[in-house]
What we know:
Layout: H1 4-7, H2 21-29, H3 49-60, H4 63-68, H5 71-86, E1 91-95, H6 97-114, E2 121-125, H7 143-152, E3 160-165, H8 171-182, E4 186-191, H9 197-201, E5 204-207, H10 222-241, H11 258-272, H12 276-285, H13 290-299, H14 303-312, H15 317-325
Amino acid sequence: MTSTTDANPDATPGTPDASGTYGELRAQLATLATEAFRPELAEIDRLSTEEIARIMNGEDATVPAAVAERLPQIAAAIDATAERMARGGRLIYAGAGTAGRLGVLDASECPPTFNTDPSEVIGLIAGGPSAMVTAVEGAEDSKELAAADLDGLKLTADDTVVGISASGRTPYAIGAVEHARARGALTIGLSCNAGSALAAAAEHGLEVVPGPELLTGSTRLKAGTAQKLVLNMISTITMIRLGKTYGNLMVDVRASNEKLRARSRHIVSLATGASDAEIEAALAATDGEVKNAILVVLGQVDAPTAAARLAEANGHLRAALTAVRTT
């Protein structure tokens, strides 16, 4: 391979110029909407704080429209994910930097919200857990690292791997998708640029393009917001499809603190209209399981029967209620 000093004999060692490695990368980045410079904002630092805030707020307001343009593709990816998870597969996010942190955030919220096991929805970030708070040099540039991280999870064909990258060119995210697809897993590539390598590598390419950032290249802004909105959809709607909700109630919530214990009682109340005494009795009988408690109250069955009916219905409360009421 030609070195940077070979490319330009006058270049200072260790500082590639436009004809070397950095020049090639700069040329790539120059084609990306997320890296585009906005001359109309070149003097934003001269504006008042409120004026800057209004501009940012206006920029943020454009993101949902960018997501809306890709709703059919997002829905198809979610249906495919739910189908795999219903067979016992896992949802695995893989990304670097901000994208990786957003994946880890979404994954970490699933156990308390939907009572999933921590092994069911997983967030991988290039460089490992320490990269959540401190950048790990070079980690995002390694496809091999992504493959090794997935191998560590013993990837199966029932799993779904979502590669996340604002640029759509991050080697770690692309490597994760390529490796997962080769293993027969479902793959989704979420990027914020059109014609991305990440989308091309995935079975489901989701290119949500919110456009250039307020601060040139700062993809934690609109791109990060777009990614968060899509990840919210992927996890939330997948869990709805898996029966983790009853209407818009989080009936699989894990009551791990006082706030969530109070919320559990509120959910049972909303679903059943039962008295406080009935709610406490049902939750006590079902060891605090909200979904089971609702079935006890609405189905007028005991706790073991509620548990059995829910198991037969694969955790879908509506189906279990129908079964109880027709027997």
